[in-house]
């Protein structure tokens, strides 16, 4: 198939998602003013869902696998690899959970502590259902039978250089404590494609100077990762894993459980990379 | 009337006696009315200010909390409860004088309660003691640290009074101490949140719209009545009918907010404060920028507290001021 055919295929038809219907079908525990206790409003969510859908369907042309593993109801902890300098992996996971299964689910991701200090982001993120990443918030949402998305690699994962692509960074253990305490099933997720959206090298001296975990530089203008390349995303939802045990166990006991999840995600990544034909289509 | 509230009537025919500090304020009067009219307590007011419109059978002492006369009220040993509302936070007063009034006054009161065997102490503190912060969890529990004074020195007195009474709660085991930490109290009262919501064109910060919790002043009075019942002790957050963004509250009231970019808001407000055009200290800006919400489930479970006023009624209560 020639390049032109490929490009034509890229512009091909995309599924006709019933956005209004899906937004209506979302479970929102709103009060008489239409806001839930975390500031989510169905109206604002419906607005941003259009943008998210365009990115998901048209820009990243994402494919989702293992949709049947997204629970139709009830609590779950989504655990995914984190990569690509820009947090579009979160957007793709949330869009897949909203657009693909028969019953749309809202995915709550945990945003960094600085987000509430940024004008507009401060309240828009909360209108769209995103929450400040404190363990208390996570507990409360799981108790309300919601889905919380965590990236146990955190900043280590998203800011890693291109040379380390598809190698998982160290996992934090907080998610496992939460899963045990709240008896929430863990849905392992592997995202393929994000690593190539902003192939970056780490400019260490500047990172040290600015006190940032990394200072990524990309080989195209504006040389800092602001716009992702139109890579094709593949997102794999794995079979839910349930763990039992004491959340206050020793580090090594928890470590084994964390490793089980990490290994599962790593093997899902390997599978996804084998199935992938090309970075861009 | 809820079945759990404590009536002032006793089997031996003597009405129970409650001392209310800060009774001359609007909240004080509402609490006094609730306890006096509906629950038949004998009320003793303790305030530096005169009490306007006082019913004849309410005893009022216009004295300083730190004075010897204040001690005399407790000396007879027939006081059944103290409700401490007398926290002064006039932003225009000298900080040193306020500090002495608040801290020394509270320390003295607690001394009297222990010395003259007052079985019940209720402090009305505030959920603001936790402080609005970007890294706050959405709902703070009673165990959260009281960090308000870090960014907001004017809150120091309130935080310290809360600490004083918390210590007393654990130290004086024979006294049932209750600390109530209500969210922003609104209604026909003169406090910062109600005054702010009464402005027709209130300033807001461009790009910020935190979720807020409001509670009707009558609901606070009801919670105080619940706290007076025997066998209730501890620290309780008090939450009103729910959470809404600040913008929704202003919209419901028909206000026209003026958005100011936050880097300019501080200098503008500080100038306005110094010129006497505004009564809001600059640090209060954080309350319209960050979340400071609390989890009220403990008060529901242990005190049986449930707000009687809905969201809309609570919001519109700020306009009830005659």
Q: Regarding CATH, which class of chain B?
A: Alpha Beta
Largest sheet of chain B: 7 strands, parallel
Number of strands of chain B: 12
Q: Assign the structural class of chain A, choosing from mainly alpha, mainly beta, alpha/beta, alpha+beta, or little secondary structure.
A: alpha/beta
Mean pLDDT of chain A equals 89
Main sheet summary of chain A: 7 strands, mixed
Parts with pLDDT < 50 across at least 5 consecutive residues of chain B: none
Commentary on this structure:
The complex is a heterodimer of chains A (281) and B (322). By secondary structure, chain A is an alpha/beta fold. Chain A contains ten helices and nine strands. Chain B starts with 16 loop residues before the first strand and ends in a 6-residue tail after the last helix. Chain B is globular, with a radius of gyration of 19 Å. In chain B, the strands form three sheets. A seven-stranded parallel β-sheet of chain B has the order 3-2-1-4-5-6-10, sandwiched between helices. In chain B, strands 7-9-11 form a three-stranded mixed β-sheet. Helix content of chain B is 35%, strand content 16%. Chain B has one domain (17-320): 3-Layer(aba) Sandwich (Rossmann fold), CATH 3.40.50. Chain B has 322 residues and is of the alpha/beta class. The chains are: A alpha/beta (281), B alpha/beta (322).
